[in-house]
Specification:
- Strands 1-3-2-4-5-6 form a six-stranded mixed beta sheet, with helices on one face.
- By secondary structure, it is an alpha/beta fold.
Length: about 170
């Protein structure tokens, strides 16, 4: 089953993954700045597929996006290619505070951009029929929200609200 729609954009991004971590920017810059990240763990494919769907959606809006949205659909392309959780033997979640790590580069990127929110999307699997997408954390300027046992529906709604706030779409 092919869950990523092959468009010119997605095919270009997949090619870019062979060189490193792709970062795609949308928007006119007049509003909030957010980062949507997936692929921290390579074997969590559902969140990465969702990020590609988001990319194709955002590509249709162009400068109508009021603000800036950075989408990182695959943070660790090598782990996605190998379908594994760890990068060089280390869980990427455990090294975001270590200078020089790719996870730390993401944190510094968000800080340098003074983002309003960062969504780090992961997957959960309770059974073969029950795959959910969760968000490990959303950073909002001065507070950090982490949920050890996230409610998939509420996190999905929160993520959509953050993205749609840049699109001026009312749910």
């Amino acid at each position: 089953m092919n869950i990523i729609e092959h468009t010119e954009l997605t095919d270009k991004i997949i090619d870019l993954c062979k060189k490193g971590t792709p970062v795609i920017k949308f928007g006119n810059g007049n509003g909030p700045t957010i980062i949507v990240n997936a692929g921290t763990h390579g074997e969590e494919l559902a969140s990465q597929a969702a990020a590609f769907k988001l990319l194709n959606l955002l590509a249709n809006y162009g400068d109508e996006i009021k603000g800036t949205i950075y989408v990182i659909p695959i943070l660790f392309p090598n782990t996605t290619a190998d379908n594994v959780k760890v990068y060089n033997g280390i869980d990427p979640n455990s090294v975001a505070n270590i200078n020089g790590s790719i996870s730390n580069h993401l944190v510094n990127f968000a800080v340098d951009l003074n983002v309003d929110a960062l969504g780090d999307f992961h997957c959960t699997r309770h059974s073969d029929l029950d795959v959910g997408i969760t968000c490990l954390g959303m950073i909002f300027k001065e507070s950090i929200i982490f949920d050890q046992f996230p409610n998939v529906a509420s996190i999905a709604i929160l993520g959509l609200l953050v993205v749609f706030s840049c699109l001026d779409i009312v749910l």
